[in-house]
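Entry 14. Ran structure prediction on the chain below.
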Amino acid sequence: MTIINRNLYLVQAMDYKVDKKEKYVIVSTTASTLNTSNAPDLKSEFVILTNQGFRNIVLDMSSCEYCDSSGLSAILVANRLCEQLEGQFVLTGLQSEVESLIKISLLDTILNIKDGLDAAEAYMENEAE
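Output, structure tokens:
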């Protein structure tokens, strides 16, 4: 938040939206990039959600066309937080460039990746506690 004057604040819009379900939460990126400018906010959101008791998170990246190392770090933070709480983390909606980066980084071997949001939600309905 940036203070313009004592009475006016400029609030940066979030580059994601959160949809809380009974067994899990869906975090959907709304920006076309996940990078150094917005990844720290997303990491913070994952910490807030897990501190609120959500241990099962779906990250829908269907609107994200580019991801850098900061974005990958945010993804790994979510995965680690869910694992620490014995929950589930599912990544879905990967665009080709982001999917390639994840495969080159070999993160596809440790992340639970589903083809689409419907598949991710079905997985969570069956596997999440």
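The chain has four helices and nine strands. Will compare against last week's run tomorrow.
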